[in-house]
Structure formats: structure tokens, C-alpha cells
Amino acid sequence: MNFKNLFVYWRTVLTVAEITLRHQWNDSFILFAILVQPMIIAVLALFMLRGLGGDYAMFVVVGSGLTGLWSSLLFISGNSINAERWQGTLESLVAIPTPFEVIIFGKNLANVVQSLISMTSSYLLAALLFGYTLKMVEPLLFLGSVLLSVFAFISFGLVIAPLFIMYRGIQQWQNAMEFPVYILAGFLFPIALLPNWTTPISYILPPYWAARALHETSTGAGDVQKVILAWGLMLIFSVIDLFIASKLFKVMLYKARVDATLETE
Amino acid sequence: MNSIEVKNLKRIYRATTGVIRRTTKEIVAVDDVSFEIKEGELFGLLGPNGAGKTTTVKVLATLLIPDAGEVRVKGLDIVKDANEIRKHIGFIFGGERGLYWRLSAIDNLRYFASLYHVDPEISKKRIPYLLDMVGLNGRGDERVQGYSRGMKQRLHVARTLLHDPDILFLDEPTIGLDPVGAREFREVIRNLQSEKKTILLTTHYMFEADSLCGRVAVIDKGLIVALDTPSALKKHVSDLSVVEVETFGVAEEVVEKIRNLPFVDALSVKDQDQRQLLLVQTKLGAEAVPDVMAALDGMRVGRVTVREPTLEDAYVRLVGGQV
Lengths: 265, 323
Known about the structure:
The complex is a heterodimer. Helix content of chain A is 78%, strand content 0%.
């Protein structure tokens, strides 16, 4: 791939992300799911956390934000492939010169950015309502962690997306895929509480390093070196995931053309 | 030079059922299909439902892998060179699906233009041009969900022309359109042909193939049963006449009785609301009418006419009366 292709693909990713957002915002159900529902959850969470210390509250705020982000990626991005199949556009997205993974990258970007905006605005509103102070210990490092986390989540989501191309009934397994990542990536509690044998699994998940970087920069639990290490490993595993995803997309798209699963039954 | 070459194409669908005792059922959609389409030709593929038309188009559009045979588009192999082929083809599958209904026509086109790597500066000019060409000028900002079926079909044409492909696959593009919409759509196809595009058109409507296509292949049960110009195909039935009898609620046994009359070459039935039009192909011409009426045995009958055969009659004979 040369730089011209990279530029063209990046332009396509941005257009896909923009059109995905426009399409979703025209659906009142999705609008409820991404705007109203997170606000209700945030208001409830902060109401319950009013008596706790600032650091712990921030840990839970960031952790619950990450769970929302992962759920949105798994459900909205995953379902979007099935939605494309049902509306007859999946075939139009496959038989074109743009690689399908570039389109899914754009869709995932839209969903991750949308989730971040929705969560941030929700918690700001909730904090304002209850007069709660959410103090960010390392705001610049936190911002850097957010940007890298966007990349990490998109890459991780790309590894799962090919399954949605191949299997029409994969939706039944979505819930089963949701909780293992919450737990193994340490979104809501440290992975030290888990059995030792699960630790290597956590280490290869980019969302784990994202969660670590975000928790450490928001609560001040880690020093700069630890944060940089988390960033580096997040990047390495994200790039590995992108590589795995590109191979999986090739295999799954070929298999979908053999098994005729690009269309509805 | 040939734009499309299909040699001994075979495609099977496999459906697996059961969890513990898994059984796989095989359905042969395309058995042994061969044809070639020259550059700039408008080629028709005719056949009844389930004959293998759409499967053939989907293989050519790089959406399905063939089980056997060789398929080339612009000399490129459909399996190995799918990515390169995709730059040169456009396709429309009949029906309203395949568009984003909650988006405007312009957003739909902008999206697909980006996916086809059309430069944004070029697509800014091309999108209004295409909307004008398909008669949607001034309606581009409206959401597609408010469009009629005909408007959606025309938007499909605009979508498929965004990257100015050399080859177009049109799979039953006029299905479900009202007569005016279908006529306008055929005009769009004629215009595309005048631009020297290579077009593969599948259709149920014989008059459509007759008026548009240079050559026509008739496909039935996954096999090509005839391939020629529409006028040469009509010669298959040049020795026949067609007796058309309008009936009201004719029973299947009566249809079979007529079909079995010794002078009946082929018979098809067209349902038109409460009426059924029996199309009896026979060498006897008007002389067959009394025997056909006798077989109807006092049943309520409307108009009875005897006419010369059309391409549709040739098609009926070729596919054994399945319309």
C-alpha cells in the first residue's frame, strides 16, 4: 500500500464515519440509546457515588464509560453489518474497490467517537446536577490516553467484525462477548482480583491497556513511565489486531462468497 | 473483443440443518452455463424464477465464488482478480433494497462515490449530473424513504454510474415498476447502451429483451437452452400461432386437459387479477379454437384471439410453459 492509497482510504474512513453518524442520528431509537440512556445511567451512578471519595468515583466513572464504549462497539458496529445485510447494502459494500475493513474502521470510528461524546456530556450533566467534582489528575496524559484508546477499541472491534459477515446468527452470541471483555480488560475492577492464569489474556487485549492508561491518568495512580508503557503496549497490540483483522476479513469474505451469506436467507 | 466470458459455470447452494445430526442439502442453481458478451453489447438473460439468472449475475459481480467453470470479466479471473474487476463494474439488483433509506439521495451518492474512490471535486459535479440524468433533479435532498419504487430504482442507476464503469449488470431492474416508470427506465438503459457500456440485463419481460437486447440467452434449471438474437429466437416458433383465451377461474385440471390436446405445442397461463389468459401455441391456428372451447366445457370465457408468435412465445416453448 502506498501513501496515495493511504490518503484515499483515510478520506473514505472519514466519509464513512460522517455518513454513519448522519444515518444513526436519523433513527430515534439509536438517538435514545446513545444520548438519553447514558445520561440516565450516569445520573444514577453519580447519585449512588455521592458519598465516596473522588479517586474511587473517577475510577468508576471512567470504568463505566469504557463498558459503555465496548458495548456500543460490539452492538452498534456488529449489528450494523447485519443491518446492512437486511437492507441489501452489504453486497454493495463488498463488491467495490474499497476493502471492507476500511469501511468497518470508519463505522467503528463513528461509534467510538459518538460514545465518547455521549459519555462525556452525560457525566458533565450528572456532575452539574449533583454538584459533584470530577477531578482529572493528569489532564494532558488523559487526553492522549483517550486518543490512543479510540484507536485501540477500533482495532479490537475490527477483529470481531468478520464474524458478523460470516454468520447471520452471531447476534445471539453478542451478550456472551460483552462481559468477558469488561472483566478481563479491568474496566470496573483491577485484574489482580482475577485468577493468575487470566492475566496473559488481559495483556493481549488492547482495551486492557486503554483502561489502564485511562485509570492511571484520571486517578493519578500511575507515574508517567507506567502510562507511556501502557501507551506503547496498547499501540503494539492494536497494530497486531489490525494485522489479524485484515487476514480474518480476507478469509471471512472469501468464505461468505462461497457460502452465499452476504445476502439474507 | 469480449468483455465477459463464462465457460461451464456451475454454482451450488448448500443448506445445513440440524445440530447433532447435520445434514447438508445441495441445490444446483447454475449447472453448466457458457456465454460471451462483446464490448459494448447489451445482452439479455431470460428465464423463469429460480432458473439461475441472479446467481449468474452475482458470480459476475464478484459476490459469489463458482463451484466449477471459468468466469472472466475484461480478461480478469473472477476469483483471483476480484478487486481489480470491481473497479470496472456496476450492478443493480431488482427491488427497493440496497440504499440507505434514512439518508438523502445526495448523501447516498456521496457515500458510494467515496467508496468507489471518486475524487470529491469530481463527485461534486457528477452527482448533480447523474441525478439529472435519471430524472431526480431537485429531489436529491429528500430522504430516500419518501421515494417511490421507480425513484429508488433510478437512484440505483445513478449509484451504479458514479465511477463510470464500463460494464453493468442489471438484474431485473424494472421489476415492480409501474408501466410509465418501466418505460422511462428502459430509456435510461438505451442511453447507457449508446454510451458503449457493456450491459448484462436479466428480465422476465420478453418485450423488454426484444426491444433492448442485441442477443438473448434463455436459461432454465441452470442451463442455457437457447442463445441467439431476438429475431432468430422468434423463428423457433415461426410455424406456430397463438390462441389467446380469456377465462375466469379456470381449474388446473382443465388447463392440463387443454395442454394434453394432440395439437397443442405449449401452453402457459397468465394471471391477471380475476382473469386467466390461456396462451395456446399450435400449428393449427384458428382451427384449434373449437377444440379448445370444447375443453373449457361451458366455462365463462371472455375474449378469444389468434395471433402471430412473439419472443415471449419462443421463450415459453423453450422453458416448457413456465412463465
